[in-house]
Amino acid sequence: MSSKEVKAALKSAREAIRNKEYKEALKHCKAVLKQEKNNYTAWVFIGLAAAELEQPDQAKGAYKKAVELEPNQLLAWQGLANLYEKSNQMDVKGDLADVYQKLMELYESGDKQKWCDVCNKLVELYHQEKKYLEVARTWHKFIQVKEEGGADNAELHQLWKKMIQLLADSTQNQDNETEQLLLTAFEHAVNSSDSVPSEEHQNLYKDFIRCLSKFPHEKLRLKKTCDDMMALYPTVSYPLEVLSLHFIQSGTFTEEAQHCFSRLLEMDSNSGPGIIGSGIKCLQERKYEEAVKSLTEGLQKTSQCPSGWYYLAQAQMKMHKHQEALLSCNQALKTLGPLGSSGVEQKNLVLQLKAEALIKIANADAAEEAINALEQIADAGSDPVLLALRGQAYLNKGLMEEASKISHELLLSHPDLAEAHALEGFIHYSQKNYKQAEKSFQNAIERKAEIAEYHQYLGLTYWFMSDETKKDKGKTLTHFLKAAKLDTYLGNVFCCLGNYYRDIAGDKSRARGCYRKAFELDGTDEESGSAAVDLSVELGDMDTALSILNEVTEKASTGTAKWAWLHRGLYYLRTGQPLQAVVDLQAAVRADPKDANCWESLGEACLSRGSHMTALKAFTKASELNPELVYSVYKTATIQQLLGKYKEAIAIYQEILKKTKDYMPALKGLGECYFTLAKSALDQYFDGK
Q1: Residue 262, Cα to own-chain centre: how many angstroms?
Q2: Which of 197, 226, 362, 439 could disulfide-pair with 239, CB 3.0 to 4.6 Å?
Q3: Which among 385, 386, 398, 392 has a CA at the least distance from the CA of 423?
Q4: Per its UniProt record, what SUPFAM superfamilies does this chain match (predicted)?
């Protein structure tokens, strides 16, 4: 076949394709290839005809052969693009991207419009595949080409916005280059807007700031962008809120940060970040009650702030609200987002504080949870302070051997660590080895004299060591006072002081003041509350006693505060107010249905009210719970006697006298019953009885 015949055959093939006679076209092309096996046009026509005949593999092979022969010719690449675009197979998308890139390369120096069309398709393909870096690079190149082509500001603004939309889902998992290209897009978009100021421009700025706030290392850019927005929109609080949250999350509490919090609160007094910032300032100034109040209020408005929850937990720990601090730590852990290096560090701090709260709660379940929290901290095994905490958790759980092992190892490896000596002291104290405990707590105080708990436990060690040390003001009292001075929120040390003033110094007034202080700090401290009430009664100050009891009972939920209900019920009973006494003593019984004394007191109140049957049931219950309560057994007999059931009363009196022969009330009651029965017999002429 001559070259003239080859041209004729290719012309026939082209005609056949135009007429949709694809098989005919294939025949002509194959005839050409027999003569010229590297004929580019023939391979392109075969690809086109095979594609139309739904023979994709043959079409692909033909196009690939063509591009091998002439890699810089458009036709074969266009054919491959059309073939891959129609394919439903996922594995061709990578090949299609390569084809688009080649087409862009071929169009770049010539047809700019076609280059833009292919670029759009390539970006869409990358976006479907979530290849955000490729999306960013390609679209950035697209904008550059448009800029060089003389696109106006409005068109470029829309293109930058489109780039932001394309990369919107990339912020959770992106590399530095994608991040920088996204931020560049935001900068160009806010700076190229024609409508300034406007709501659309304002929202764009907000999105930019929101995006920047996700990248901890972009703090300078974030601050500048917030400042720029505030200059344009001075009445909008959003940039101040973001800046405030940034300062809170990064732990930056400079004068600049405080100024930011103040400005935000001036603009919006209900702003969550502003109130949280104010609370942190109070925490730094040791105004713990104000700190808790502000932080709680702020977190109700801005709950997704892990640092805010952490600072709230810190303030609650300072006030020894350990249960509340635990809840705050759990909230902080719940709200922590994806953890970068700073996030891991923050999580470790929260877990440590959570462990400290659980150790202070001091029961076996809390100890187990504390150990679990410490195990989640990276490198906890190499941190001596965390090891000391683990030792305390083991001690609370009753694992003395494990606690002692940690104590021994810490004292060898870190002899100057106060926490190591304190742990040793806690172990000796729990074993009642008071001499050794004294030495350990003294060593701990030498190294950290500002820790109130060490002074308190040294005071307690002297309290239990001997009567001599208990009465020694220079030992017990001095350390209790030192602890109270160092930590004015440490409620149980005020209870210790109350015990000292009541039992050793005999100063009831001062003791009552200490118990009241302890109870004000910890409303769950029944020992202090009860002691404050008892001393108030002894001092003849019933108003104070009732004030304490009323405060507790008003706040108490059903089934709680037994001691307060019992105390007030007995007061009402003593002062001749049986109706109120019954109500309070019933509440005490609900709080502890197995307390025989509560039932006995309730029986007495019911009897005073004239409810004999109810009183009988209460005294019977008391005697069932504690058969040694002779008074309750006696009272069941007296009620039976009152009800005219003399035989039943006699049987009960006799039971009492079997155990206690000289119990005078029972003897008297038994005599009265016999006398009444005798009198009744005489009245009925049964003289023989």
Answers
A1: 27
A2: 226
A3: 392
A4: HCP-like, TPR-like
pLDDT digits (tens, 9 = 90+) for 604-646: 999 999 999 999 999 999 999 999 889 999 999 999 999 999 9
Q: Which tokens in the block code for residue 500?
A: 């000292």
DSSP string, 48-96: HHHHHTT-HHHHHHHHHHHHHH-TT-HHHHHHHHHHHHH---GGGHHHH
Q: Domains (ranges, CATH) in the chain?
A: 627-688 (1.25.40)
Alpha carbon 479 to its chain centroid, in Å, reads 36
Q: What distance in Å separates the CA atoms of residue 263 and residue 242, rounded to the nearest whole number?
A: 13
Distance separating alpha carbons of residues 41 and 24, to the nearest angstrom: 16
Rounded-to-integer distance, Cα 23 and Cα 53, Å: 8
Q: How far apart are CA 665 and CA 232, in angstroms?
A: 92
The CA-atom distances, in angstroms, between 399 and each of 403, 405, 431 are: 6, 10, 12
Helix axes 630-642, 612-625, angle to 10 degrees: 150
145 vs 138: CA distance, rounded Å: 11
Q: Is residue 551's pLDDT more than 70?
A: yes
In this prediction, residue 495 has a pLDDT band, given cuts at 50, 70 and 90, of very high
Residue with tokens 């108003």: 543
Q: Please answer whether residues 549 and 568 qualify as being in contact, where contact means their C-beta atoms are separated by less than 8 angstroms.
A: yes
Would you say 618 and 602 are in contact if contact means Cβ atoms under 8 Å apart?
Answer: yes
Assess contact for 343 and 349: CB atoms under 8 A.
Answer: no
Spatial separation of the C-alpha atoms in residues 498 and 516, rounded to whole Å: 9
CA-wise closest residue to 75 among 17, 2, 142, 143: 17
Alpha helices in 508-645 (DSSP H): 508-521, 526-538, 542-555, 562-574, 578-591, 596-609, 612-625, 630-642
Q: Which residues contact 300 (CB under 8 A, 6 or more apart)?
A: 272
pLDDT at 685: 66
Asked whether 501 and 525 are in contact (CB, 8 A), the reply is: no
In the 3-class helix/strand/coil scheme, how is 159-181 assigned residue by residue?
Answer: HHHHHHHHCHHHCCCCCHHHHHH
Task: Select from 184, 194, 191 the least CA-distant residue to 163.
Answer: 184
Asked if 241 and 271 touch (Cβ cutoff 8 Å), the reply is yes
Arithmetic mean of pLDDT over the chain: 91
CA 626 to chain CA centroid, Å, is 46
Q: Are 142 and 108 in contact (CB under 8 A)?
A: no
Q: How many CB atoms lie within 10 A of CB 47?
A: 29
CB 67 within 8 A of CB 97: no
The crossing angle, in degrees rounded to 10, of helices 272-284 and 288-301 is 160
Q: Give the torsion through C-alpha atoms of 637, 638, 644, 648, to 10 deg.
A: 10
Residues 6+ apart with CB under 8 A from 218: 183, 212
Amino acid at 130: K
Q: Residue 386 in 3-state DSSP?
A: helix
- Is omega for the bond preceding 197 within 30 degrees of 0, making it cis? yes
Rounded CA separation 288/206 (Å): 34
8 A C-beta contact, residue 374 and residue 386: yes
Residue 339 has what pLDDT?
A: 56
The structure's pTM equals 0.78
